[in-house]
Specification:
Number of strands: 41
Number of helices: 28
Largest sheet: 5 strands, mixed, barrel
Distance between the termini: 65 Å
Shape: globular
Strand content: 15-25%
Structural class: alpha+beta
Strand order of the largest sheet: 9-10-11-13-12
């Protein structure tokens, strides 16, 4: 050992595992010193602790103790420590090394993320660099004993370093350590993890003991049932991927055929398989213990073993998957087929699950199989003796391992969500399954934000007046949004200039003024990434003081904005553009229908009645202002028409999607759920936002060519258009897909004057064929990949909705840095931005999926209450795909896409007589490119793509999975009642109103009939986390529409 005045040098001998899985011996020089930061605000020494702004957390001063887990606790019970309530944890360097080298990479990353989260107020203390906290390993001492001794020595040092101000608790699983150290130093406690949880946390978070017991049980010996093949060593996998022998990618299980089909998308570079097609993984043995979402390495089989994907619609069953039998019917087009030979990264998460209705506990250790809510996840074996208590509950489980000799993965029970089919439990399940974690904004976050109360109103700062362009008196600014919307992101202005040109302005809420980089509010917004809109509630990305107040550009108040203002010539070409921070005061808050009606010539009386800002004025002043506003709206629509026509001529697509809108009463209760009427004013606003996003993208790419955040919509794969082409062909249309321009032009020509729904269906199918748009950093893609296929633009980003999208917040920061020529300092670099883009993309997709799932939940609960003979349970449906055993149809009246079976599991076929009676009999099905024929003992019938049929809507209850709707063919003719109703009035008012109102009423009635204790001891915490927003609070615009909701591919 070498000494000097400041440092103490020694050698550390390690035996660690390399990245290739080999054990190697390593000698490292270690320099110890006295001034290692302790990261506690109670420190009385000169530790030079960070304030928290440099990326290091500070321990909290207001907890009653600091917690130091030992190595085994951190490795095996990290999930307990991840609970957001447990703060003030000190992870020693010794413990972190143990997790890194004795645990797994995924566990190590979880620990690092826990420490990075400032809300946890937890730190890593480098005890092995602190001269007085470190212990040399003694000769003959086991690694475990040395780790325990080092942990206690560091705990003692911490206690004395803080001058005995704060008790220290060391938690361990080592009984000998407890006996040895528990009475050694006053107020340095050594407790077992179980004793610690019972004494300190059981009353605050009751489920913590259930989690502890479940984790303990999962560490027991594993059950041996079925052999899989072992994985190849890591170095062989890596070299195989580099050479092209193997293919690397994430495994995606087909939810409609989970037991037989999974796919791995190939990376475009270095691929040896033609066409960059997905690789089919057929059957569970070939999947080799890979779980949906895992990063796997695949060996492509010889071409003679390639298969086609199944052409049969699989009927959903409880716990289907592992034992699914071959269906025998496959697509004629074979595709590359392979098997999993290695797993690079497990992407296991928490899963919602439930017990089978007849599940019993086995004799050995309480082992029991649970069925995950997600069809794509196999059954999971957990250890619990609470089956009777939990059998009718939605529960949460985690996977711990999947051994080579086990048919099922092993896991553990985490917590319960509530009774099956209880509305709040089902909403909780939707959020958790989509990895959406929502909770109330913390007190610390709220303290960062400004105050706006009657006693202390918020006002424009004098400093900002000098830095911003003031548009309050010079511009007529107004907003056009859905009725009842209060989180107004964007406003518009348009006026004629003295030189004869026009000025168009898009003014966006300046969220970045209030949300500073790396603040707690920024970190929370980054974590959420988007506002989540469900069918009956929403979860905001930003606290209400910002989203509904200070950042909302409502009329009549002064607000900070980020503006893009163009000067346009008489042909609407851009002459000049200005970007900058402004102060605005919106004059009018219009809703879409009123703005459209103003353009169409509605009377002055109706306008004044629906625009509060025009009321209580003299008649002459009112007429003047109405005319001024009407001219502005009309001019704005004229400009937008030209901008859109220019984009469409360049190949922009006009696609169709199912848009559903929730209407609320003045008391914020849900009044209606109805299909959204499409108006020209919708296109007007959308076009102005697209225009702003495009020009902002051009600006940030120009200044930050290698670290700008853009949005990329890639080219769709040609095979994705097959169904669209077949449907169009059945009606005599020819759809060209060689380019976006060719597709747009041919879709415009696919018009059937006798059936206007046909064009909408074809555009919906084109939407399904599209690739998913995503955010990316410009330094991560070649420049020729920056384009947005659907919008036909070379550069595109998101700038116009910073209240509900974190990507827009990042773009605002980049734009101001570009405008002010501040350089890239303080902005995320390419690598950081690329990682952040992946996170935002994931959260964005999760929010869209949660929207879809919640809508399907409310549809199911609505029809569950109906008599099947009720008129609302019969509907017109259009056939858009033909399968070997049935049809895929779309129900315009309710926006439902679902299968209709023509052959059941017993091999019988369905025949519908002219009288409307249907019968399952013996027979056969003949499928062709555009039609399917049923030949039964009773008679024959033929159905063709885009035919109208009548279906009965039947609720399909499921204990284990999400309940759904089942469609049954009752007539080969369209439903006359639906076809007689105009498209915009497909749902009667009573039906629209009933869907959500009745569901909520029934759920409320159930809750009042049973006490909160019946929900289990977690009721209050679950209600606080997932409960419906109180009606006294803001329920405005629960969701504007589902227009951005991605169409779920038929897979």
């Amino acid at each position: 050992m070498v000494h000097d005045n400041q440092l103490e040098k020694s050698n550390k001998f390690l035996r660690i595992r390399s990245v290739h899985g080999r054990n190697i011996s390593v000698v490292r020089e270690v320099y110890r010193r006295e001034n290692v930061p302790c990261q506690s605000p109670l420190c009385l020494s000169d530790c030079q602790n960070s304030t928290g702004d440099g990326g290091l957390s500070l321990l909290p001063a207001d907890v009653n103790h600091y917690l130091i887990p030992d190595c085994q606790v951190a490795r095996e019970f990290l999930e307990v420590l991840e609970n957001p309530v447990v703060t003030g944890i000190i992870f020693l360097q010794t413990v972190v090394h143990s997790v890194q080298h004795e645990g797994s990479k995924r566990l190590y990353n979880r620990l690092r993320n826990l420490v990075k989260d400032k809300r946890k107020a937890s730190i890593i203390f480098h005890n092995e660099f602190q001269k007085y906290a470190y212990c040399e390993r003694e000769e003959g001492e086991t690694l475990c004993d040395w780790q325990t001794r080092s942990t206690y020595a560091a705990a003692e040092w911490y206690f004395h370093h803080l001058a005995t101000q704060k008790p220290i608790i060391m938690v361990t699983l080592n009984k000998q350590a407890i006996e040895k150290y528990e009475n050694k130093t006053l107020n340095v406690f050594v407790l077992s993890l179980e004793e610690y949880l019972r004494k300190f946390w059981q009353s605050h978070i009751p489920e913590v003991m259930e989690l502890y017991e479940s984790l303990t049980a999962s560490l027991e010996t594993k059950v041996k049932e079925k052999d899989y093949k072992g994985y190849l060593p890591l170095d062989i996998l890596e070299s195989g991927v580099k050479s092209g022998r193997f293919v690397q990618g994430h495994i995606n299980v087909n939810r409609n055929n989970a037991g037989q089909e999974a796919f791995v998308r190939q990376k475009r570079s270095g691929s040896t398989v033609e066409d960059d097609r997905d690789i089919l993984i057929h059957g569970m043995p070939a999947r080799n213990r890979a779980v949906h979402g895992d990063l796997v390495v695949v060996e492509v089989l010889p071409r003679s073993e390639w298969r086609g994907r199944s052409s049969v619609i699989k009927e959903s069953q409880e716990g289907q998957g592992e034992g699914d039998e071959e269906d025998g019917a496959t697509d004629e087009n074979v595709m590359p087929t392979g098997r999993v030979v290695g797993i690079l990264q497990r992407n296991w998460r928490e899963y919602v699950a439930s017990f089978a209705s007849n599940e019993q506990v086995s004799e050995k250790g309480g082992k029991v199989l649970v069925i995950p809510w997600d069809y794509r996840i196999p059954k999971i074996r957990i250890s619990t003796r609470q089956v009777e208590k939990l059998k009718d509950q939605r529960i949460v489980v985690r996977i711990d391992s999947w051994e080579i000799d086990s048919q099922y993965p092993n896991g553990h029970f985490v917590k319960t969500l509530g009774p099956i089919e209880d509305l709040e439990a089902e909403i909780s399940a939707i959020l958790l399954e989509n990895t959406i974690h929502v909770s109330a904004f913390s007190e610390a976050q709220m303290k960062e934000l400004p105050v706006d109360t009657p006693d202390n109103p918020w006002c424009i700062e004098e400093a900002e007046l000098n830095k911003r362009r003031d548009l309050r008196s010079s511009h007529l600014i107004f907003s056009i949004d859905p009725k009842g919307c209060e989180d107004v992101d964007d406003t518009l202005s348009v006026r004629e200039l003295a030189n004869g040109n026009l000025e168009l302005g898009v003014h966006i809420a300046d969220v970045t003024h209030f949300v500073k980089p790396d603040s707690l509010t920024d970190m929370e917004a980054k974590s959420r990434s988007t506002t989540v809109y469900l069918a009956d509630r929403r979860y905001d990305m930003l606290p209400g003081i910002l989203s509904a107040n200070l950042c909302s550009l409502i009329s009549g108040v002064d607000r900070y904005a980020m503006s893009v203002i163009w000067e346009l010539d008489k042909n609407f070409e851009v002459v000049d553009v200005l970007y900058g921070k402004t102060i605005i005061r919106s004059s009018y808050k219009l809703f879409y229908e009123m703005a459209q009606a103003m353009h169409d010539g509605i009377s002055l009386t109706e306008i004044v009645k629906n625009v509060p800002e025009l009321q209580n004025m003299l008649e002459e002043e009112t007429e003047k202002r109405v005319e001024e506003l009407r001219c502005a709206v009309t001019l704005l629509m004229r400009v937008a028409r030209c901008l859109k026509a220019r984009r469409v001529s360049g190949g922009a697509l006009e696609l169709e999607s199912v848009e559903v809108q929730v209407q609320l009463t003045e008391t914020k209760s849900v009044e209606d759920l109805n299909p959204k009427d499409h108006l020209e004013i919708h296109d007007t606003i959308a076009e102005c936002m697209i225009f702003a996003n495009h020009w902002v993208a051009k600006k940030i790419v120009e200044v930050f060519p290698n670290q700008a955040l853009l949005r990329h919509h890639p080219l769709p794969k040609s095979e994705q258009f097959e169904n669209l082409k077949n449907c169009a062909k059945s009606k005599g249309f020819d759809v060209k897909t060689s380019s976006n321009k060719a597709l747009a032009e041919t879709l415009d020509r696919c018009v059937d004057s006798k059936d206007p729904v046909i064009n909408k269906i074809l555009r919906m199918l084109a939407t399904q064929a599209m690739s998913v748009a995503s955010y990316f950093s410009t330094g991560s893609l070649p420049r020729d990949q920056y384009f947005h296929y659907g919008l036909a633009l070379d550069y595109y980003t998101h700038f116009t909705s910073p209240i509900r999208r974190y990507a827009d917040v990042l773009v605002h920061r980049q734009l101001m840095a570009a405008v002010l020529a501040e350089g890239s300092e303080g902005l995320p670099g390419n690598q950081e931005l690329d990682e952040l883009s992946e996170h935002i993309n994931h959260q964005h997709r999760a929010a869209q999926n949660a929207q879809r799932d919640s809508q399907e939940l409310f549809q199911y609960l609505y029809f569950k209450q109906k008599d099947l003979n009720n008129e609302c349970c019969r509907a017109d449906a259009i056939i858009f795909q033909i399968r070997a055993n049935g049809l895929m149809v779309f129900v315009p009246r309710y926006g439902i896409r679902a299968p209709v079976y023509l052959r059941n599991k017993d091999g019988q076929v369905l025949y519908v007589q002219e009288s409307g009676q249907s019968e399952w009999t013996g027979g056969s099905i003949t499928k062709s490119e555009g039609s399917v024929s049923v030949n039964s003992l009773v008679g024959s019938m033929t159905l063709t793509l885009l035919d109208h049929i009548t279906v009965k809507i039947i609720p399909n209850s499921s204990r284990a999975h999400a309940s759904s709707l089942k469609l049954e063919l009752i007539s080969t003719e369209g439903y006359a009642l639906d076809q007689d109703i105009p498209t915009t009035e497909k749902m009667s008012k009573n039906q629209k109103q009933a869907i959500i109102q009745e569901v909520r009423a029934v759920a409320e009635e159930k809750r009042t009939q049973s006490s909160s204790e019946d929900q289990g001891h977690q009721f209050h915490s679950l209600k606080a986390e997932f409960g419906q927003t109180p009606e006294s609070e803001s329920l405005y615009s629960l969701f504007e529409s589902f227009k951005e909701m991605a169409k779920k591919p038929i897979s």
